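Protocol step 4 of 6: structure prediction from sequence.
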Amino acid sequence: MGIISGYCVAGATGHEPKSTSLSSILMPLAIVLVGIGLVLSLPIISRSLARSVAHGSGSLPLSLAMRRNEVEPGGALRVATGLVLLVYAASLAQGVLIELNQVSNRNSPVQSYTLPLHEVSDEKRKAFERVSGVEGHFIKMDSWWDHGSEGWPKILHAVIADCDQLRKMVPTATGCQEQRLSRLVSDDQIYDQSSRPGAVFPFLLQAKGEKRFFRVRVPERALKYPDKTGEALVDSGDVLIPPSMIPKGFRPASATLVLLSSSAPDAVRSVLDGIGGVDPTVEVETPGVVVTALQQITVVKTILGMGMVLGLIIGVAAYLVAATDRAVERRPQVTALSLLGARPRTLRTVQVVQVVLPLAVGLTLAVALGKASESSYLVTGGGEIFWDGAGVPLLLASTLGVVVVAALGSLPLIGRRIDPELIRRD
């Protein structure tokens, strides 16, 4: 707890640890030690709590339950350990998922996908633009130049898009006018000196084997856009060409189709699946996202989710087995209490209380220590999220559900019939 508390304090005060090698040793060690300490301290805490409650209680069922926990604190360890460790592990698994989301999420709200236009027919281009998740599209092309000429060529970069498409790729751009050429200018970027107003650049177009040049004169009119974050999909000096100015039936001989979507991992996967559905052989580039890493993160998330579901099933099953075994061991004592006049309802109350109370205490500690361990893990992970408040309601609801299941599982363990044979030897 000292290691975990130290990391939490460091994260709260803005002094995140820089030494990842030391953290890679201390963090797993602290998590394992806290888990072991949580299990080993549960009988001690259960005995102390039972002694205090039984001493000050005037209720017969509560006194009987607490005296039983005081005499046999190991019973609480046997019954509640699995579920307590499950809740503790759930907090840590949630921290892993948060860190994976931070790794897979881009800082930019927009994700782009570039496809070579010469490999895409007009029908497929329209199908790509209609893929689920695609929120915008445009075409980028460069002016033609003679590859056999000497010296450094002067090239003009152009963007074929209307004003609606421009606003989707550059939300900060203002003053766009339809059917007019514009120079895209940003004071936050280095301006392309080849894009001088009045200069003329040829662009090579083609249509069914026919080729022709489309000449563009760099306009005086400038369309400015701020780019403080460096997330703009265009460069200062690019020329915005309205699609209507391209001769009908022609298309750029060499250009790039750019699709836009949200940067959320689910949206990225949906768009990539849609692109693969239209043409699985097309070459797609996703700037800022490594597709293989995104697939690996999806696999890890699936494994963690399946592990938590299987852990819940195994934990509840282990609880039922342990609780039933403990109830069978206590049948002589239950029978003796029944012969002394204890009602079945009282005995059921005793059984529920002596199981639920130590379990509730253990789960509360598991939630608190698990969230502290999760926060320290996130601090050492180097991400931006340290405190996961969104996961607390789900964790508390799961904990409450575990307690309810434990209580319901304890009710049928007390029978209505008295079997004197169980206490003949006593």
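Step 5 (inspection) to follow. The first strand starts at residue 110 and ends at 116.
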